[in-house]
Amino acid sequence: MHNRSDQFAKSLLRDGLSLVSAAETEVEVLAATQKIDVFSVPDPARDAERARMGLLGELAAEPSLFEPFHGTPSLRQVRRCLRKQLTWHHELERRARAAAGAVVPEEDADAPTQPPVAFPALVVISPGRPETVLDAYRCEPAQPGVYHAVPGLVTRVVVLAELPRTRATLMLRLLGSGRVLRGALADLAALPDDAWEKSIARPLLIHFRLGTEEPAIDEEDEVSAEIRAWVEEYERKLRAEARTEGHREGHREGRNEGRAEEAARAVLTALRVRGIAVPDVARERILAEKDPETLEQWLERAIVAASLAEVLDGLS
Questions:
Q1: Residue 10 CA to chain centroid, in angstroms?
Q2: How far is CA 88 from the centre of its chain?
Q3: Contact status, residue 270 vs residue 299, Cβ threshold 8 Å
Q4: For residue range 245-279, what is the model confidence (pLDDT) as tens digits?
Q5: What is the CA angle 86-88-93, rounded to 5?
Q6: Other Cβ atoms closer than 10 A to 245
Q7: pTM of the model
């Protein structure tokens, strides 16, 4: 996630869902060098609490991957999410076999001894209507602003711009932009001080909403002075942290290099699993690559390739 709005969305979903589930963020998906934004597993003991959470609680009624987008996602972006969903289910099955002590070869994963693992749902959260996605997966409206794909995909698409302006949709509308976000902020400010939505959203609004390209508030909007106070508090924090920005930047560069190396190792692992020999010159080229899109493309090829030439152009 590359900007403050995306971090806000991920944090809001994680903190809200943590009230009624075991919610994790940036869950690593093995063999895909990708991370699930938020993965939530419902806690049966807190079903009553989840019922009061409105639409977010409904979407969290089963193990689910939540993938919020700041812009309306393309079909290619949603396909990446589907790949994470499938790979994560495979990993959950592997963990279940290991926990049960079952010795089941991967090719016999459907054997009766395989521990049952629920297939996790995928919840794609989009600010606008992703027409190509809805058409490609034959999504049907389940309720205003919520679409279900064909049953086998276990995928829901939430269109924030189409959600009704009710308290039941408030936590999700806070992930929107423009008119949707302004309306959600006004609705949040109107809630009682002890509202659970405020306890979750207020600290995150202070921490994330100022400094984005789109202001969190507008003087002409009917947003309370309380929200302005949250933003002013965060502004003071920004000034206090400015002196250490250079130090943090160095850490960020180090993390980026580490992610590129991790992605390169995943490519090499995929080639090894496929039984494809990798000469030293090819290994050096893979490990030296720093562009994440190139590494992702190589990994996609390596998963199905029959030779090294199918993965790396110009090498055999």
A1: 7
A2: 13
A3: yes
A4: 555 555 555 566 667 787 788 788 777 767 788 88
A5: 100
A6: 9
A7: 0.62
Return the DSSP state at 18.
T
Contacts 24+ apart (CB under 8 A), 149-156: 153/82, 153/122, 154/85, 154/119, 154/120, 154/121, 154/122, 155/82, 155/85, 155/121, 155/122, 155/123, 155/124, 156/59, 156/121, 156/122, 156/123, 156/124
Which strands make up the sheet holding 21-29, listed edge to edge? 21-29, 34-42, 64-68, 121-126, 155-159, 146-148, 140-143
How many alpha carbons fall within 13 Å on the CB side of residue 124? 30
Question: What are the start-end ranges of the H helices in 127-195?
Answer: 131-136, 170-173, 178-189
Query: Residue holding tokens 């590129």?
Result: 260
Identify the three-state secondary structure at position 121.
Answer: strand
How many whole angstroms separate alpha carbon 307 and alpha carbon 290? 23
Residue 122 · residue 154 · CB < 8 Å: yes
Task: Report residue 51 as tokens.
Answer: 């019922």
pLDDT digits (tens, 9 = 90+) for 110-147: 555 566 888 999 999 999 999 999 999 999 999 999 99
Identify the residue whose tokens are 């008119």: 179
- CA-derived radius of gyration, the chain: 22
